[in-house]
Amino acid sequence: MSEVSDAATVRLLLADYAAVDAANKLNVIGGGLTIVGFNPEPGLTAPFAVVVSVGVPPGLYGAECSVEIILEDSSGEPVSLPGPTGEAQTMRVGQAITFGRPTFPVAHVPQGVMGARVQWVLAFSTGLPLAVGQRYVWRVKIDHDTRDDWIEEFFVPGPAPGPVIG
């Protein structure tokens, strides 16, 4: 494990809508989703967002790392979805990040009082073409390392069964 992945705290949250503002504060509506609806007409899930938050202790101010967010199916395999050209591509987002010392406008935050945190949102404003009746997992990897608690699970339900005739 890298020094950053060994010390990191990772949190994930699914929501109907989420955004990070200029002050690095989260704005969330409908947070805590575990079930993402499905619209059969276009064959897509309902719109949703994935919030990723990675924090490290003050001793890692200035540390750099790579962060990946990967969508996995219920067996732990990466999910492939049609890309812009129609070819299947693994649903994976990567980002290089540097942890800066926390600051607050017009106030002094002493060095080492707070850890550093980076957070961002993956917004799927039109949904994703996922299979109904399936459980999925968003997994975070830091410098290619992951932990069992760096995940967020969700389910995509199918239509309610009709009445039983007979």
Characterise the protein shown here:
The chain has 166 residues and is mainly beta. It has one domain: Immunoglobulin-like (Sandwich). The chain is built from one helix and twelve strands; from the N terminus they run H-E-E-E-E-E-E-E-E-E-E-E-E. The strands form four sheets. The chain has a four-stranded antiparallel sheet. Strands 9-6-11-12 form a four-stranded antiparallel sheet, with no helix packed on it. Strand 11 and strand 12 form a beta hairpin. The longest helix is centred in the N-terminal third of the chain and has 5 residues. The protein is elongated. The mean pLDDT is 92.
Our estimate of the beta-strand percent is over 45%
Listing every helix as H and every strand as E from the N terminus to the C terminus, the arrangement reads HEEEEEEEEEEEE
Give the overall silhouette.
elongated
CATH architecture: Sandwich
Q: How many helix segments?
A: 1
Low-confidence stretches: none
Number of domains: 1
CATH topology: Immunoglobulin-like
